[in-house]
Amino acid sequence: MTDGKRVVLLPVADRVEPECERALIELAKSGWEVRRMAGNSAIDLARSLMATEVLDQGFEDIMWLDADIAFTADAVEKLRGHKVPIACGLYAKKGQRELAAYLLPETNEVVFGEGGGLLEVQYVGAGFVLTRREVYEDIRDRLGVRRVNTRWGKGFYPFFQPLIVKDPQGESGAEWYLGEDFAFCERARQAKHTIFADTTIRLMHIGRYGYGWEDAGNGHGPGAQRFATYRMQLGAKQKGAQP
């Protein structure tokens, strides 16, 4: 792998928040190629098209970012330093006491910030996720994911096509609709990959203000106190009751 083979992929629905843009500039200076796709209302299609293109071009490290996530370039390099196939950061949903992730059922506490570390998660939103080439190749080869739309050119792999799966904690016969990012995680897990979250990385989800870990645990508000170490005791809602 060479330094020229790492890329940031950023689907853009409307605009890139200034806090995100500043970090993108720093990543570009350090050798990351930054690619954006604007104006595609089908996010699963946008992600699948972008992923297929960079895989065809030989990229090894693929960093997914959302345009409303505030982060630092150092945090991206921290994920890369773990040298695992999938590493991510956790962030709060806007206006909800939930993380944009679904944690393992046996997870009862998450330590954020100082004292945090790598935590296995079941599904995660694609706002801050580093993936390596091998994940896509294993999804393709082990799960039989094929190129589609080849009659109009090279086509693409539908890595992010939404899925309906059996609800592991629901009543008998209950099913669960997985949106594009959770569906990708499900495919990655079926292809024998583990998804790790680095809970030392602070991300802010930009809305009316910057939503942080504390908003997912204590409740939310623009004056929410921030802590160097934050322990979140998890009930069903904080574990990610809704995809």
- From the N-terminal CA to the C-terminal CA, the straight-line distance is 34 Å
Mean pLDDT: 91
CATH topology title: Spore Coat Polysaccharide Biosynthesis Protein SpsA, Chain A
Ranges where pLDDT stays below 50 over 5 or more residues in a row are none
What CATH first level would be assigned?
Answer: Alpha Beta
What fraction of the residues are assigned to beta strands by DSSP?
A: 25-35%
Q: In this structure, how is the largest beta sheet organized?
A: 8 strands, mixed
SSE series: EHEHEEHEEEEEHEEHEEEHEH
What's the gyration radius in Å? 17 Å
Number of separate domains? 1
Q: What's the assembly state of these chains?
A: single chain
Describe the overall structure.
It is built from seven helices and 15 strands. By secondary structure, it is an alpha+beta fold. It has a single domain, classed as Spore Coat Polysaccharide Biosynthesis Protein SpsA, Chain A (Alpha-Beta Complex). It is globular. The chain starts with 5 loop residues before the first strand and ends with a helix.
List keywords for this structure.
alpha+beta, Spore Coat Polysaccharide Biosynthesis Protein SpsA, Chain A, eight-stranded mixed β-sheet, globular
Topology, element by element:
Layout: E1 6-12, H1 18-29, E2 33-38, H2 43-56, E3 61-65, E4 69-70, H3 73-81, E5 86-88, E6 101-103, E7 109-113, E8 118-124, E9 128-132, H4 133-143, E10 163-166, E11 175-178, H5 180-190, E12 195-198, E13 204-206, E14 210-211, H6 213-217, E15 229-233, H7 236-240
